[in-house]
Amino acid sequence: PQRRRRVQRAVRLSAWACSLPLAVKLLAASGWREWPRHSALVPGWSGVRPNRTVVTLGPFELDAFIKDPQHWKVALAEKGLSATPAATVSKLEGGNTIFSVSYDSDLSGVVLPKGWEHVRVSAAGNDANFSELDWALDVKGEKGRHVSLTSDDGTLVYDASVGVEVPVGKGLSVRYAVDAKRAAKPFGPKFNPLTSDLQMEALRPDSLRQGAGLQYQSKAGGFKLGVLEPPPSQLSSNRSLDYVAEYKYKGSRRGLWAAPEATIRAAAAGGKPTYGAKVGLQGPFGLFSGLDIKLQEGRPAVTAHGRINMEREVVPGITLSSSTALAAKELLHRATTGERMEIRPLTLGTKADLGTLLPKVAGKGSELAAYTILEPGRTRPAGVGATVKLAGKAMGPVKIEAAGLLDREGRPSGSVKLRASAEGFHARYEGSKSPFGQRQYAELAYRPPRGLQEAVSAVSKFASLGPLDFLGIMSSDSAAFVRMTQSPEDFEGKPRVQVGFQYDFNRGLRVHGEDVLYDTGKDTGGILDETGRPVGHMEHALAQLRASQLQKLSKTEEVGAGQLWLME
Q1: What is the pLDDT of residues 65-93, one digit of tens each?
Q2: Distances (CA, A) of 204 to 53, 150, 159, 183
Q3: pTM score, two decimals?
Q4: I need a surface site. Which of 20, 186, 263, 514 has the fewest CB within 10 A?
Q5: How far apart are CA 560 and CA 179, in angstroms?
Q6: Pairing between strand 242-250 and 510-519?
Q7: What is the mean pLDDT of residues 156-175?
């Protein structure tokens, strides 16, 4: 029997090896005229097909997309963080080649040295004007230490601060901080980190703002005092200092009632004092009540407010919720009812945990929820909505995940994901629909057994079938695929079909990706990522945005990071 099975396996492999190239040749000879028109060979690059290749280089991945000489992109990212690449070079719409460099410690696996809280570096430019670089550096450390650097019209601008804290007793410490800013100057020294030398004149700040403070913590609460210099524009007209004094108390929990909270605050800015106090109490069942008192320019204002955010599981798997809030304003002054009372809509909700109610069908995280919004003075609901999340358990070779939403205006949106595998075939479908458009991604891949791959490769080389020579990578895990994508941003929103081969091999250096042999959108469609979305210049745009934000920050007189730290 064992010998018979080996013979049967050999016969099947031979049949596959002989029939597959023959079928391809018969198909081409039978008038499949669309193939030459949609053949995805790159014009001008002999023998190169549109492809995506990912090379793993230690902790990094090099991701290369190629469509044609005017549409390509190369990105370098930390492994598993391809959505936030560290460096990119691309040309997606013809014209100039653009590049970007980015690092964000919050999105990186690189551990910062002790005392560093956040680091973000970004730069973007193009090959047409290398000196016109949009760059930004943002570093944040402990105790109010912070610096943000960029260039504006060729001059260096920054917003920086430094702070010092000295303990002087039990629970008592003294703080000092200074903020420095430099804005753009039309005739100032030019600076570019790639083309210019740094001059001391380029570092001189336009304004300095100092502050000092006290911090005291005890069982009776915490007290903070900060004294600040006024903004530079007010120094000539305002000789008084700005100050902030604040006392906070948080009591202990008693029974069903949570700890009461109280805050008393006095502050002055521009010579105008403001006084205020807040009292709050968190009660059972999500109930919160509070009272706010404020005195500004001799006019008192008192506001009482409350909110309820209750959620309770009535039976296993079924949860009911309700939330609303109200505020009574201008309690010490005459006001109409509409001005005095503010009542937020009442939201009633029901949530069913499908993982608990239907454990054989639904997986963890599956739920069905519905809500109703009721507004005062209306007999009908102001809004009705529902959401559903289904993380289906694998039913044999098939696994389904779905989510849907009906918003308060009755607009539906939703998504569905499907995975299926059987006998070397792997199917994947992801679809979503929202008021902004429809997206679809469907792929069917066939990964033949190793023996069949070897046989097909040998026969294809013998028959001179170029497309099938791809399977000659015998150390790889290769597969043939057919894919359909649809998105509003690509191919005029029409469905786009691609046919090609995928590969994945690892012999000390892992290389995986795909070659596209047939593409209905090869002329007008863009480069697609693994989700079917067009690849864009997002990193370049984010770098420009960060530089623009820092340029605006250097021109404002807002309180800097050092002054904010005084009152933390």
Answers
A1: 998 888 899 999 998 888 889 999 999 87
A2: 48, 14, 12, 10
A3: 0.74
A4: 186
A5: 6
A6: unpaired
A7: 92
